[in-house]
């Protein structure tokens, strides 16, 4: 799974990801033999494959914020170019000849911003599915109210993600 953030670093990180795993750029004359890609070749280990692109920020009321969506789209476009270059780097990639729209449907997933629900879940060690049962939690001496509709939406996003996996 490849996280995509709302900044340019995700776009540049994609090049780094492909270079790290597959050695797609020219190897460094000194350090090249120490890279993950070189070690995988050396030991004939199977490389990981890309299963999903996760847009990890999502506004709560109207879908992905426009600025984030623009950067996310650019990152997904860059991944689509990589998919077209070498489909074997993607889970089940060689089984399909996706258009860009089909590629996005198959590999892209936008996660919600879990806001208070995420903070409470992480700090109390609760799965979000358990949080559907009640709306109020104590965290560091404070009573935190979690909106039932937001909990339900967060839970649905996770269910969709699990389905894709």
Return Rg in Å.
19 Å
Number of helices: 6
Q: What is the chain-wise order of helices and strands? A: EHHEHHEHEEH
Distance N to C terminus: 10 Å
Shape: elongated
Main beta sheet: strand number and arrangement?
A: 3 strands, parallel
Poorly predicted spans: 58-63
Number of separate structural domains: 2
Quick check: average pLDDT? 84
Strand order of the largest sheet: 1-2-3
Total beta strand runs: 5
Q: Please estimate the helix content.
A: 40-55%
Structural class: mainly alpha
Strand content: 5-15%
Task: Itemize the secondary structure elements and their pairings.
Elements: E1 2-4, H1 8-22, H2 36-43, E2 53-55, H3 66-85, H4 100-107, E3 108-110, H5 115-124, E4 136-139, E5 142-145, H6 148-164
Parallel strand pairs: 1-2, 2-3
Antiparallel strand pairs: 4-5
Helix pairs in contact: 1-2, 1-3
Looking at this protein, list some descriptive labels.
single chain, 165 residues, mainly alpha, two-stranded antiparallel ribbon
Summarize, please.
The chain is mostly helical.
Description of the structure:
With 165 residues, this protein is mainly alpha-helical. It has two domains: 2-110, no CATH class; 115-164, no CATH class. The protein is built from six helices and five strands. It has helices at 8-22, 36-43, 66-85, 100-107, 115-124, 148-164; strands spanning 2-4, 53-55, 108-110, 136-139, 142-145. Strands 1-2-3 form a three-stranded parallel beta sheet. Strand 4 (136-139) and strand 5 form a beta hairpin. Helix 1 (8-22) runs parallel beside helix 2 and helix 1 runs parallel beside helix 3 (66-85). The radius of gyration is 19 Å and the shape is elongated. The relative contact order is 0.13.
